[in-house]
Design brief:
Blueprint lengths: L2 H17 L2 E6 L5 H14 L1 E4 L3 H8 L15 E6 L2 H14 L4 E7 L2 E3 L1 H8 L4 H42 L1
Antiparallel strand pairs: 1-3, 1-4, 2-3, 4-5
Helix pairs in contact: 1-3, 2-4, 4-5
């Protein structure tokens, strides 16, 4: 790999750490090509990405960044799984690791916070951004629906009483 290509890779990896919600570092030693393709496919379907890069170039990209300590995880055959939503890459990595003994989550970073494997599991157990937005919208809309039901209840009760009275007079 020539110098220009290495500089481009370093810039790309630096961008991954800066712009991603989460970066998961994992060992993939012993995985087959179909297993790796399956991981990439699962990650892509969920909204994340997988990147394999030389550890030395990744460490260079991390120099001076808030999550520089992630560089200590970059030994051996490692890959970076990342996504904008912090829960996506974490969940896919955790699920994939539970089904594949050759894929081991080493840790990662969320912003400037460095996480160990248990931290990645904790992030994976959190609800996704879409789930949180749905919960907030539900909470906002719920009081309005209850209020409308309360306002409409007396009118429907009155109509029910009038209908009953009409039925009695007709009988």
């Amino acid at each position: 790999m020539d110098r220009a290509r290495k500089e481009k890779v370093v810039a790309e990896i630096g961008q991954i750490f800066e712009s991603s919600g989460v970066v998961v570092v994992a060992k993939y030693e012993g995985m087959t090509v179909p297993e790796m393709e399956n991981l990439r496919s699962l990650m892509r379907e969920a909204g994340g990405f997988v990147r394999v890069a030389k550890n030395r170039l990744s460490k260079i990209a991390l120099q001076g960044s808030p999550c520089e300590k992630v560089g200590s995880l970059l030994t051996g055959m490692t890959l970076l799984a990342y996504s904008e939503d912090p829960t996506v890459a974490s969940k896919v990595s955790k699920d994939f690791a539970s089904n594949n003994k050759n894929f081991v989550v080493l840790g990662g970073a969320v912003g400037s916070s460095i996480l160990d494997p248990k931290g990645i599991e904790a992030v994976a157990s959190m609800p996704s951004r879409e789930d949180l937005i749905a919960s907030v919208v539900s909470c906002i809309g719920s009081p309005g629906a209850t209020l409308l039901g309360a306002i409409g209840a007396p009118a429907s009760s009155l109509a029910s009483v009038l209908t009953t009275l009409e039925e009695r007079e007709a009988a």
